[in-house]
Each structure stands twice: as structure tokens, then as C-alpha cells.
Amino acid sequence: MNIVMFGAPGSGKGTQSDLIVDRFRLTHISTGDLLRAEIKAGSEIGKKVEGLIAEGKLVSDDIIVALLRKKVETTKDTAGFIFDGFPRNVAQAEVLDEILKGIGERVTVMLDMEVEEKTLIERLILRGQQSGRADDNMETIKNRLDVYRNVTLPVMDYYKKQGCYRQINNNGTVEQCFAQVEAAIEDASK
Ligand code: AMP
Fold first, then answer.
1. Which atom belonging to ligand 1 lies closest to the Cα atom of 68?
2. pTM of the predicted model, to two decimals?
3. Could you write out the DSSP letters of every residue in 156-183?
4. Ligand 1 mutation target, pool 11, 63, 88, most atoms within 8 A of CB
5. What is the pLDDT of residues 151-174, one digit of tens each?
6. Which atom of ligand 1 is nearest to the CA of 60?
7. CB 151 within 8 A of CB 96
8. Cα-flanking dihedrals φ and ψ of residue 165, to 5°?
9. How far apart are CA 4 and CA 82, in angstroms?
10. Segment 62-80, tens digit of pLDDT
11. How close is the Cα of 69 to the center of ligand 1, in Å?
12. In whole angstroms, what is the distance from residue 137 CA to residue 3 CA?
């Protein structure tokens, strides 16, 4: 079972991933978390990506793919992965297929978390106040939503063509969203 969590910034990918981990015991890989860990550690990669993240721009595919590949290939004994924040463009989606093929796997289902833009912005501003994330401010949020619309949205068609696309409505509560997520995963694993 390999799940791609898809959706705009603030659409609840991380929150739902945590719930999926509890319920289905999968390995959660968030490329945003991997990058923030590099920044915190003060690594070379961290120094390269810090400015880009603060501006809401995408980090280069080379860096992201290397981090992701390492994480997938060094994780043993897992029932599968949840990819959160990856792929963010079609080239990354193609690489993900290749990496999974290498371990005899494929993407089982892609969950597209749909949230109204007004709600996305409210949630991101609130998260910024609570967590202090450098990119959860109004100016950067606008850039991130532009990047999502222009670069990331075509990834949706990529998975629609593969027949593993599922739409989830996340305008309601966390619980209402998870009920749909759970049903989609159970259906996909039949
Ligand atoms: P996230 O935590 O998923 O919202 O990611 C935060 C930031 O990390 C994004 O705005 C990008 O700058 C960078 N990032 C995370 N994942 C990727 C990815 N798959 N490709 C490129 N940049 C990424």
C-alpha cells in the first residue's frame, strides 16, 4: 500500500498522514519535514534550501529526489509508504514510479485533499501563529498557492490516467475527512 497525499498547502496532508500511520501502520515521508530537518541540522542541503522555502519556491528536483530515494531505500520492513508533499511536479511523479518499481512496488492510491482557498489561507495563518513556520505568512502563502496551481496541479492528471485518483473533501472536520480517507484506502486495497 503506497499512498500519495496530494493537495494545496494547508489542505491537511500532514494531519491526515498522522492518522493513517496510526490506523494502517505505514511509513510517513514528508519531503517538507526532511528539508526542515536539514535546515535545523545546519547541513549543506539545509543552507541551499532555506531561502527557497522561505519564499515559497520549489526546491530543485535533484535535492528532493536524492532525499526521498535514500529514505525509501533505507526503510526496511514496512507495509508501505505515505508520500506527503511529493510529487510536486510531473517529473517527480515519474521518478517516484521508477523508485517504487525498483523495490517491486507502485502507487496504490492518490488522495486529493480538496479545500476552499479561503479556508486554506485561514488554516495556514493559524498554523504560522502556532508553529512559527517561516513560510506560513501571507506573502509566502500566496507564492505557494501559485506554485501549487501552476506546477503541481498537473500531477493530478498523471494519477487520473493511472486510475488511482481519489478526491477527498476536507472543508469539514478532521474526523469527517479521515472517514473518507479510511474508506478510500480500504477500497483501494481490495
Ligand atoms: P511542505 O511542508 O510540504 O509544505 O513543504 C514546504 C516547502 O518545502 C515547500 O514550499 C517547498 O519549498 C519545499 N518542498 C517540499 N517538498 C517539495 C518537493 N517535493 N519538491 C520541491 N520542493 C519541495
1. 19
2. 0.97
3. HHHHHHHT-EEEEE-SS-HHHHHHHHHH
4. 88
5. 999 999 999 999 999 999 999 999
6. 21
7. no
8. -80, 135
9. 6
10. 999 999 999 999 999 999 9
11. 16
12. 29
